[in-house]
Amino acid sequence: MRHLLDTRTLSRDDALRILDVAEDMRDTQSREVKKLPTLRGKTVVNLFFEDSTRTRISFEAAAKRLSADVINFSAKGSSVSKGESLQDTAQTLQAMGADAVVIRHGASGAPHTLATSGWISAGVLNAGDGTHEHPTQALLDAFTIRKRFFGDDSRGRDLAGFHVAIVGDILHSRVARSNVWLLTTLGARVTLVAPPTLVPQDVSAWPVTISYDLDQAIASAPDAVMMLRIQLERMNAAYFPTEREYSRRWGLDAARMGSLPTASIVMHPGPMNRGLEISADAADSPRSTVLEQVANGVSVRMAALYLLLAGERPTTHPQEEAR
Question: Does the residue 63 lie in any domain?
Answer without folding.
Answer: yes
